[in-house]
Amino acid sequence: MIEVGTLLLMGLFAVLVIQSNLLRLSVIYLAIFSLLSSFLYVIYAAPELAIAEAVIGSGLVTLLYLAALKRNRVYTVAVVSDERRDHLTDHYLNHVERSKALTEIREFFVRREYEVQTVFVSETLDEALRDPAYDLVVAEDEEGFATYTDDESYVILELELMFQMHGTDSALRFIRYSPEAVL
Q: What is the predicted pLDDT for the residue at 82?
């Protein structure tokens, strides 16, 4: 019975490894899969293989993958709403989260295997532009969404070129600024 349960869990984690959109999460699922396979070796009375799988598969390989992924940049997208910053409602957050502009920005990063982190901030636009933790600042105004990027961001330049070449259904504008000028 334990053997069947372990095999089912291994199948579940194998599917999760393949279906996960985040690379770090896939690595964690792969480590759990490897740990379950080492447990299966213990059930089959192969302790040497179990130890090797646990140390190499679950430990060493996972650390190597995570170290390699550490070089992968996480882009932080800050969403600013000056008018609603004191009372951000769930309805407004869902509206922005599901907007065409944010969806297209996320798809751009996912296609390039970057991890995008969207945060809703209660800071003013000037405060968000001064904060070095944000790689991209998105603000909604009466014309649609405006993205604020610094002059030195080549990935964001590629995003802007992609929007210009392929067009977009969202009213997305790119505004460049110099970080020194904002300070």
A: 64
